[in-house]
Amino acid sequence: MKRLLPRLLANYGMAIVLVLLCVYYSIATYSVQEPRGEASAAPLAAKLRRELPAGGNVLIVARTGEDDVRFAEALDARLRAARFSIAAKVLGDPRDARQALQRLAAEEKPLAAIATTPECAAWPVFEDLATKYPALKDVRVVQPESYRWPTFLNKDNLLNVANQIAVVAILAIGMTLVIVTAGIDLSVGSLIALSAVVLALFIRNHGGVDASNATLWAACCLGIGACGLVGVFSGLMVTVFRIPSFIATLAVMQVASGLAFILAKGGSIYEVPDRLTWLGRGTGMGGMPNAVVLMLALYCAAHVVMSRTVLGRRIYAVGGNPEAARLSGVRVGGVLVLVYGLSGALAGLGGVVLASQLKSGSPTYGVSYELYVIAAVVVGGASLGGGEGRIFGTLIGALIIGVIQNGMNLTGVESYTQKVVLGFVILGAVLLDMLKRRDWRVLFHALRPRPVAGPDAKGAA
Amino acid sequence: MTPPLLELHGIQKSFPGVRALRCADLELQAGEVHALMGENGAGKSTLIKILAGAQQPDAGTIRIDGSGCDIRTPQDSLRLGIAVIHQEFQLIPAMNARENIFLGREQSRFGFERRRQEQAAVEELFERLDARIDPETPCRELSVAQQQIVEIAKALSQKARILIMDEPTAALPTHDVAKLLDVVRELRAQGLGIIYVSHRLDEVFAVADRATVMRDGEHIATHAVRDLTRERLIELMVGRKLEAEFPKRSSAIGEERLVTRGLNRGNSVRDVSFALRRGEVLGLTGLVGAGRTEVARLLFGADRRDSGSIVLDGRQLEIRSPRDAIRAGICLLTEDRKQQGLVLGLPVLDNFGLPNLRRFSRAGFIRETAERSAFGGYVRRLQIKAANPEQLARNLSGGNQQKVVLAKWLEANAEIVIIDEPTRGIDVGAKVEIYHLINTLAAAGKAVLMISSELPEVLGMSDRILVMREGRIAGEIEDTAHATQEGIMQLATR
């Protein structure tokens, strides 16, 4: 039994943290939910069917907002299907409702019910209907029932979390590869901007808002390819000239950002067709946002590469012990260049997604994203020392960061406090990682003078 | 009668799987140079680490000036007046001599450094050592000998009374050695007790007053150097009978397979030529730093050679990288398995597959079943004791780690097997297994180049022996049956 807890922590520590976070925010955001929009029409129609098995005339009242219009239309359709007749559908303010009521009362048509939203039901117009309009004395006012449910767990909110972290999570795949090889890539934030600008610029120069689909595809490939090449360049700096990756990618980060500003002449580029938002805002099967589907597909592919292919094996070997890998015939330099190239290309893809979400390209995109990306990878359990790190660990890391940010927004934590919390989350994750290695002593290292090991460790063999 | 400056009695120290020190004794007088002798692995390094406070003994007593003391940390060691000059200097390259000497003990007033005071102190120290070094030059610009003087000056500035020098001349060019020995004599005259660890017998006879010999973690003998001869000292160091440890082999030695001509690389490998025959185990020995490992790395393409040719089965090889060597059928089992042979954080299966992924993959995907079944075969043949193929290489014992490395190269169809220190860090039982495996390789017609510092191992295993000294092949012993450790040492140390 004593071994069980450490083992659980070792394998699923971060997943457990994620689940606990979700549970916490579910409890913290447990509140009255006012159903609205399309989704609230179905239960209301069912309720009417229950209360009025015989059917009858129904007046639908709602305001003019997008949710209300959808509600009214969906309810209209459902009630007609259930053999209710719709006396009138009012979309407007209390005055419109009063006029409709007066008209119905004048016509002396029997009205069975008024179906409306919780907001409209509170209008004074619907009070004392029997005294105001004796003809409508049997009319009941029905509205969707409110219920108690965690705001955090609403489908829309969960998809929102996934959509929010999609860009960071896609970049984090590449960063995981780089960190597994004991390197770091600081340039990914700038590459987002470069990719978005290249993409938008190409579209503007080839048709603008009327660009063809082929142009859009070409623009995406161009953005990704350009960033991939920049990544390869970083990789060459690291391998050929042995510049530490921190320095090489710090420099490339400046270069890429500068290039993006030069290309965009310092401004944003908006001349893109609406269709560009398909990737970033569109939804596919089951209401899943396309960006989230793309992200999940990439994670599955990356997981297969890292766990089942020669390349993955070599990446772990190069990170774990470059000398041993070289002496086993692995082309260490080639692996590194490829990894930096992939990181760049994935950053480019992240830029494409962001440009699609925001329907424009701007050199100011992606600022300080690299820090969130690195945080996601580290929280996900990869070791900056190289050789260790799992792809799905990184996804969990990205989700943890996304959930914390979303949860803090829902519970009304202000953004400055959020930064403080996120910082401590990163520290906590690293400590948990050390605990996972069953190295409890790390907690006491600070309290103890550290013995200095001699120059050679032969005695400890 | 005054008590000795330093007295160690019955020091014991064990590491998991190894008893590094069984019963170490040492007695050092003030004004004495005391040589500490022994083969690699005799326990000298561990003893030094204990004195330096880097490790704590399991049992035994340490007395300084007759009173018992406890060395728990390096700070304790310094306070007791013990200073160690390691083989690798502990200087900060970008700092100058003065800053290095006063590192951690900066002379200051209100937080400002008192440079003038430090400079005066450094000048006085250098005068004591008769050294001409600019105290304001960054240490990375100093020669090795000068850096060593800075290390010694640092020790003196810490008021050290016991100076431990670990292979102080290993890194020194020949012409600087005499100068260092003068410094050592000067320090002795100033009343310091010096423990001098060296493999070079000439130096020991030139400078030491007494010598203590250790073997297998035990104190063997302490004699005044003037009562010793070279032969007697070597005998004390190596004197053990281990013939039974080496299994007999009956393999026919065939034609020449690997022939090298005039291999050169800087000062570490000079004009090395030899031939390696089918079915043969060729022992390559010499002192640490004689260039044995460097020869292996040249053959394997891990380092570039300046000149020389390598011919395998009559074919000239162009070896530029380990990849080329592996393709040609040469493999290297490195001396340091942890640093170079294995990726410790990966499962043993992954380590096994690393050079063989071409065979175990299709279209870039690893065929894990094939890899597993191949590895399973070696687990049985080599009797690798791993809980499962997913076990991390880190968690295997030394002997099993060595077998995993051997398995990966056998799978890679290696024909020329270079093994550097095949049994370093491996306990006695597993050693015999490794020896059996080496014999099996030779019997299968492969050619084995075995590099080793353990003379009994070299004598017991080799068909022929090459002895290296200072990058050159100093001699070849054909008749291994009648060769002696003394004979090898004579070749290696002359």
Task: Describe the structure in your own words.
With about 450 residues, chain A is an alpha/beta fold. Chain A is built from 19 helices and six strands. Chain A has helices at about 5-30, 40-50, 65-80, 95-105, 120, 130, 155-180, 190-205, 215-240, 245-265, 275-280, 290-310, 310-320, 320-325, 330-360, 370-380, 390-410, 415-435, 440-445, and strands at about 30-35, 55-60, 85-90, 115, 140, 145-150. In chain A, the strands form two sheets. In chain A, strands 3-2-4-5 form a four-stranded parallel sheet, sandwiched between helices. The longest helix of chain A has 28 residues, at about 215-240. Chain A starts with a helix and ends in a 16-residue tail after the last helix. In chain A, about 45% of the residues are buried. With about 500 residues, chain B is an alpha/beta fold. In chain B, the strands form six sheets. A six-stranded mixed sheet of chain B has the order 6-9-10-3-11-12, with helices on both faces. In chain B, strands 18-21-22-15-23-24 form a six-stranded mixed sheet, with helices on both faces. In chain B, strands 2-1-4-5 form a four-stranded antiparallel sheet, with no helix packed on it. Chains A and B meet through helix 13 and helix 14 of A and helix 1, helix 10, helix 11 and strand 20 of B.
The major sheet of chain B is characterized as: 6 strands, mixed
Structure class of chain B: alpha/beta
Distance between the termini of chain A: 32 Å
Gyration radius of chain A, to the nearest Å? 29 Å
Largest interface: A-B, 32 and 53 residues
Biggest β-sheet strands, sense, barrel of chain A: 4 strands, parallel
- Lateral strand order in the biggest sheet of chain A: 3-2-4-5
- The assembly state of the depicted protein chains is heterodimer
Task: Specify Rg of chain B, calculated over alpha carbons.
Answer: 25 Å
Q: What is the mean predicted local confidence, pLDDT of chain B? A: 87
Estimated structural class of chain A: alpha/beta
| Broad shape of chain B | globular
**Spatial order of the strands forming the largest sheet of chain B:** 6-9-10-3-11-12
Order of helices and strands of chain A: HEHEHEHEHHEEHHHHHHHHHHHHH
The DSSP helix count of chain B reads 17
Catalogue the unreliable spans of chain B: none
Overall morphology of chain A: elongated
Q: What's the pLDDT, averaged over the residues of chain A? A: 85
Overall number of strands of chain A = 6
